[in-house]
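Dear colleagues,

As part of the handover before I leave the project, I'm documenting each prediction I ran so the next person doesn't have to rerun anything. This entry is a single chain, and its sequence is reproduced below.
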Amino acid sequence: DRKLRNTYDHLLFSRSPLLSVYADMSVTCKEYYDPNRSMLELVFAPAEEWISRSDSDIIDATMSELSRLFPDEIAADQSKAKILKYHVVKTPRSVYKTVPDCEPCRPLQRSPIEGFYLAGDYTKQKYLASMEGAVLSGKFCAQAIVQDYDLLAARGEVIAEASL
């Protein structure tokens, strides 16, 4: 029912254990622009233990987390900002769950196979599994290919000359 003051024109990673990312769509998308009200879109994850819960349970937990993120503007009991409308979309298995000690399992972009490279949000890079991570991984992959190009090209020329 009001405009939140501390939002930005970006998708934000959250410090909340339940709300992994969020955005104020009234700021980030011109189609939802409203100078008087915020419209938050949030990813509630990991949702494994929440997927079977009611929408009202999920909204209550979301409001509790939002009150921690925006303590001056949102209260869990809605005594500050009030929800005018909400919609919960449940998508099982769409968001990964971060667990300790999995980082060593993420492969580098330069694989152990010469000339074979990997790119994707699952590879080693600084972001979690996300579009941002996939893009950064692609950049790292391209950098590895450029770094290895001279070596690979030289080996290709040697092989080509030997087969003549």
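The chain is about 30% helix and 10% strand. The beta strands are 12-13, 19-24, 40-44.

All the best with the project,
I.
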